[in-house]
Write a structure and sequence with these properties.
alpha/beta; about 250 residues; Rossmann fold
Length: about 250
Amino acid sequence: MSDAADGTAALVGATGGAGTTRLTVELGTLLANDGRDVCILDAAFATQGLADYLSGRLDPDLTALLTDDADAPLSDGVVDFSLDSDGGRLACCPAAAPFERLARAKSPAAAQAFESRVATAATTFDHVLVDTPPVAANQAVAAVNATDRTVLVAPAATRGRDAVQRLSDRLADLDVDIDGVVSTRGELAVADAAVPETDADVTAAPTCLADSSMATAVATVADIAVDATPATEDGRGLLDSVGDLVSG
């Protein structure tokens, strides 16, 4: 486990269907609501789930910024997530592309471009979160190499526990430290934090500002992922202020 305190993090699904995209959106929302500027980059090219949380024009998407529009500024592909607060900014750069471009966006050259996009975002935003699939393609390797922290996300089930072990071995081969494990939909013995199950679908997300148990869990993830325990205006930390977020 690393003890670095930095502002960029790859949230890596240990297996498919772990709820990594949802957790990344919830985490970004809580941090932005606390007054921070947050950018989410989408490395989950196969599922393109981040795009489901956004509306409006998604062109150029992140894969285009890594290939055909490699010289365009990151801001061209960023879509702001609407928040019902006067806090910080939550900006998202999703993958929303045809298969042909998805394939090209997985090349070694595109992976290098991905790392550069993370570095660029880090100069503009307080935090950069990367929605990352199980590490089995170049863009996922780029995500864990380019970020300060790596957090594994696994479902609270036997398949989740086994996937954490497999992915831990793979990341060790890449010389990447794991800074924490988060279980979704319940408790997992190997996890450092657990996010409760929710019946809310994509259209209802995020829920962390209206659900106290979700807010508390996501605040714990914030501490693991980006060492976020910022003081609010009254001097209290993020974990202390969660109750205000859900009761105001």
